[in-house]
Design brief:
- It is built from 19 helices and 19 strands.
- The protein has 506 residues and is α/β, with parallel strands linked by helices.
- The protein has 3 domains: 178 residues, FAD/NAD(P)-binding domain (3-Layer(bba) Sandwich), CATH 3.50.50; 128 residues, no CATH class; 105 residues, Protoporphyrinogen oxidase, mitochondrial, domain 2 (Polyamine Oxidase, Chain A, domain 2, Alpha-Beta Complex), CATH 3.90.660.20.
- The strands form 4 sheets. Strands 1, 2, 9, 10, 11, 12, 13 and 19 form an 8-stranded mixed beta sheet that branches. It has a 7-stranded mixed beta sheet with strand order 7-6-15-16-17-14-18, sandwiched between helices.
- The longest helix has 17 residues.
- It is globular.
- The two termini are 38 Å apart.
C-alpha cells in the first residue's frame, strides 16, 4: 500500500493539470490512467505509420491568461500559430464559418434567404420565453429555418437523438454569446472591412465570441505534446503516474480521515493506495460505481449517458484537398459528421508532402452498429462517403486506420441536470475532499481550457485547505467565459465560492 497526499484518477487535461501544479508545490501526488500507452485522454495525439492525428481537433485558445500562461510554461518552445478555417457542407455546397454574408445569400438563393430572414424576425417577435430544449434555444437565436439548415442535422448526428430531447443547457454553453445579429455583423465586417482590420470575433457590444476566433495556437506535433510534457514534468517533480491502471474501488475512512483506493493493472495485479484528497476526472457514472459502500446517488449516476466517437483516418494519394482545419458535414445523406485535414492543423502531422491525411468523424453509442463494425467496414464506409461528398475517389485512398473513443461527450438529456445535482449533493454531504474535475468528471461539455481551469481552481482549494472557488461555475459564468487576455483575476472572481444554504446545489 502506498500513500500520497493527493490521488488523481485520469491523466487527461484536467488530471494532469492538477498533478503538475500539485507536484510543483511539493505535494505528493499519485495518478492512475486506464490507457496503457497514452496520456491526454481525448486530447492525445494518435499515430499511424508516421501520420499524426488529433481525436476530435483541439484548438489551443483561451480567454483566461492563467490557462495560456500554463500552456506556455509546460510547452514553451513547440507552439505554432495556425489560421482558424472551417466550413459547413450542406446540399452540395460549402458555407464559410463564420458566415460570409454574400456567399451565404448566393448559396441559399434569394427565396430561401428571404424565408430565413422572415423566420428569424418571427422568432424575435414571438420567442419561446423559457426555452427548455436545444431546438427551442437555437430557434430563438436564429429562427426555425436557419435552425433546420445549420443546426438540426449536424447536432442530431453528434448526439444520436432529436434536438427536442437535448437540453437547452448544451446550446447555452457551447454557443454562448453568438446570435444572428452578431453572426451577420461579423459576416458584414468580413465582407467590407479593409484588410488588416478584420477580427471576425466581436459581438455587437464589443465582447469576443470564442466560437468565431480566426487563429489559434497549436503544438507542432499535436495536442499530445502538451500532455506528454505535463506527464514528464509531473514525474520530474516527484509525482507518480501508473499507466494501464483502472479504478476498482474507492472508500473513505472517517476515523482515519483517509481515502483508500484500489486499482487493477492490465496484467490483473491489484494495487492499493491511500490519500487525503482524491481528484477524479473519470466519468461520474464509473466513479460512483466504484465508491463503497454504495452511495445513495448511484441510481442517478447510472442514468447519465455518454456519446462515443470514432475517427477513421484516411491517407489520400493527393496533396491537401482543402485548406480548412475541418469541415462540418450537415448533409443528411451521409453518416460522417465532420472531416479533419490534419496538415492544416500542423504541417508536421503529415510526413509526406504528396499525401493528405483526413480524419472522418463518426458519432455513435458503444455497442451500436457503427461501434461494433470492423475496422475494414468503417474504412470502407469512410472511403465511400468521402467519394460521395466529392473530396476524393475510392482509388485515391492508399491506407487508413480506426480509433475508437469511449465516452467522448457527456449527454445533455432532459434529466442530466437533476441527476448531476443529486450526485453533487451526495458528495458534498458524505464524501469529504472528493473533487470532481474535467469534462466527464463533472459531466459538463467543457473545452480543454475549461477542463484545465476546473483542475487549477481545485488545486487552489486543496492548497488553501478550504473551498475558495466553486469550480461548477467555470464556463457557466459570463465573466470567466469572456475574460480578456488580462482577465485572469476577473475569471477567478467569477468562480469565488458564494455561501449557499446547506443541501442546495447552485
Amino acid at each position: 500500500m502506498s500513500h500520497s497526499d493527493v490521488f488523481v484518477i485520469g491523466a487527461g487535461p484536467a488530471g494532469l493539470t492538477a498533478a503538475y501544479l500539485l507536484t510543483k508545490e511539493g505535494v505528493s501526488t499519485t495518478v492512475i490512467e486506464a490507457d496503457p500507452t497514452y496520456v491526454g485522454g481525448i486530447s492525445r495525439t494518435a499515430s499511424y505509420k508516421g501520420f499524426l492525428f488529433d481525436i476530435g481537433g483541439h484548438r489551443f485558445f483561451s480567454k483566461s491568461k492563467e490557462v495560456v500562461d500554463l500552456w506556455k510554461e509546460i510547452l514553451p518552445q513547440d507552439f505554432i500559430e495556425r489560421p482558424r478555417l472551417s466550413r459547413i457542407y450542406y446540399d452540395g455546397k460549402y458555407y464559410s464559418y463564420p458566415l460570409k454574408a454574400f456567399e451565404a445569400l448566393n448559396n441559399l438563393g434569394v427565396v430561401e434567404s428571404g424565408l430565413c430572414v422572415l423566420s428569424f424576425m418571427y422568432k424575435q417577435a414571438f420567442p419561446n420565453e423559457k426555452p427548455v430544449t436545444f431546438h427551442e434555444w437555437v430557434a430563438n437565436q436564429f429562427g426555425e429555418r436557419l435552425f433546420s439548415i445549420f443546426f438540426k442535422t449536424y447536432t442530431e448526428k453528434v448526439w444520436g437523438m432529436s434536438c427536442d430531447d437535448i437540453s437547452a443547457d448544451w446550446a447555452a454553453q457551447r454557443i454562448k454569446g453568438l446570435d444572428l445579429w452578431s453572426a451577420m455583423a461579423n459576416a458584414l465586417r468580413n465582407s467590407i472591412a479593409p484588410k488588416g482590420f478584420k477580427d471576425g470575433t466581436k459581438a455587437h457590444d464589443g465582447e469576443v465570441i470564442k466560437t468565431l476566433i480566426e487563429s489559434f495556437q497549436y503544438p507542432r506535433k499535436g495536442p499530445g505534446m502538451m500532455w506528454d510534457a505535463a506527464a514528464a514534468k509531473t514525474r520530474a517533480q516527484g509525482g507518480t503516474i501508473h499507466m494501464g491502471t483502472t479504478l476498482k474501488s474507492l472508500a473513505h475512512d472517517a476515523a482515519a480521515d483517509l481515502w483508500t483506493i484500489t486499482a487493477e493493472t492490465t496484467d490483473g495485479t491489484i494495487r492499493t493506495f491511500t490519500a487525503r484528497d482524491v481528484i477524479s476526472s473519470a466519468p461520474i457514472r464509473e466513479l460512483m460505481e466504484s465508491v463503497t459502500p454504495t452511495p445513495v446517488s448511484k441510481p442517478s449516476a447510472e442514468k447519465l449517458r455518454y456519446r462515443d466517437f470514432i475517427t477513421v483516418a484516411l491517407i489520400v494519394d493527393k496533396p491537401d484537398l482543402f485548406p480548412d482545419n475541418w469541415i462540418y458535414i450537415h448533409e443528411p445523406s451521409v453518416k460522417v459528421g465532420r472531416i479533419q485535414n490534419f496538415r492544416s492543423w500542423s504541417p508536421e502531422m503529415v510526413p509526406d508532402e504528396k499525401l493528405a491525411c483526413l480524419g472522418l468523424e463518426y458519432f455513435c453509442f458503444e455497442g451500436d452498429g457503427l461501434w461494433g463494425a470492423s475496422d475494414g467496414e468503417l474504412i470502407g464506409l469512410a472511403k465511400k462517403e468521402l467519394e460521395q461528398i466529392g473530396l476524393a475517389t475510392w482509388n485515391d485512398i492508399k491506407d487508413g486506420c480506426v480509433v475508437r473513443q469511449k465516452k467522448a461527450y457527456p449527454v445533455y438529456d432532459d434529466a442530466y441536470r437533476f441527476n448531476v445535482d443529486t450526485i453533487r449533493e451526495d458528495i458534498a454531504a458524505n464524501y469529504p475532499r472528493l473533487h470532481l474535475v474535467g469534462r466527464n468528471g463533472m459531466h459538463k461539455y467543457n473545452n480543454q481550457d475549461h477542463a484545465m481551469m476546473t483542475a487549477m481552481l481545485t488545486v487552489k482549494n486543496i492548497l488553501a485547505g478550504k473551498d475558495q472557488y466553486d469550480i461548477w461555475n467555470v464556463n457557466e459564468d459570463a465573466e470567466y467565459h469572456e475574460a480578456g487576455a488580462s482577465g485572469a483575476e476577473e475569471a477567478l472572481k467569477s468562480v469565488r465560492l458564494v455561501p449557499r444554504p446547506v443541501g442546495k446545489v447552485a
